[in-house]
């Protein structure tokens, strides 16, 4: 029997064994958690017969040595069902080989902390049109070069869909459909990477993730990321179990120029859930559309569609030289923001923000919002030629202050929906006479987004 423990901010989950439970009912885990467990942290007992509440849950009854399972359809399961205990990972592994091709295969029943396919070293691999279901991670690339993972369907994943480890370079992750990510271990994403270069992540469709849609981590000098492109992806409903996350998230602890491009992605619904010190749930908490975390520098965020992205459409956390251009942001809650700037005090002077700019963006508010930008010691930033399409014939929301940084931005027009074809029906194509065209705003390439737009 084990415990799944999450810190109050739900930044990561730890699945730990139980060392003991003392006479006062205090639970002692066999190892420390990733983050400190403060008041309000949550704990879930795994594998105990008394906690079989939902279909697909199972437990081991040590008393009578039976595996207990709650099926989706008890009658059908009693008639011809079977239970499979996943024990093997990986199912296919290649070490230092070249030009391995896996095409049209099905993979299932891999432990939540294991990968179905593990390719370590080598180059020229192709993982094409396979199906992965009920596996921990579908495809794990370990220091692989010039390889392609394309057209795969990955669903019901214990942790992540596709993962690239440090030293991977020149790879293409294209047109994969990834569903129900992080069903056991929440700290994962549709596509996870660290220490990668010249990588293209494009035209993937990622839905229903406990944490990230796409994440690119730089923790230390060994995990620097440079010259990568994340484009034409469709991401829906992420941050279902955790907080402090982005549909597309980067971490930049090395404080380098990443030369990263994040463009033409369609992002909707970034969730975010946590608890306060009293254990009360907080929803839409620290969820972001594009999250440039911890000193991520030199990113061009352009041509993205961002809707219902919680605290901010784009969050720049201590980074320099980032450009946010030609994006459409749809704000759906009065607490939503288009931009958030925040310093990183633990990084010293490097944590101050410098030379960040947002220009030619179109922000559409479905409800009155208090302000467009949150800046917490936000440093130097510029807003140029952005259009704010507010409800109520372009009037400012009651009581909302005019921001100093909006002085050079353009106020929305007095016509109802002067910019889009039909926003009430989620049609955000520009009208032929849209005023946004006058500031140089370019139509988003809608037909190129998602697996169907792959070339």
UniProtKB/TrEMBL annotation:
Ranges for region Disordered: 392-425
Residues of the signal peptide: none
UniProt cross-references to SUPFAM superfamilies, sorted A to Z: Pectin lyase-like
InterPro entries found in the cross-reference section: Beta_helix, PbH1, Pectin_lyas_fold, Pectin_lyase_fold/virulence
Source species, domain of life: Bacteria
All copies of domain Right handed beta helix, residue ranges: 117-327
Coiled-coil spans in chain: none
PANTHER family listed in its UniProt record: RIGHT HANDED BETA HELIX DOMAIN-CONTAINING PROTEIN, SECRETED PROTEIN-RELATED
Stated name of the protein: Right handed beta helix domain-containing protein
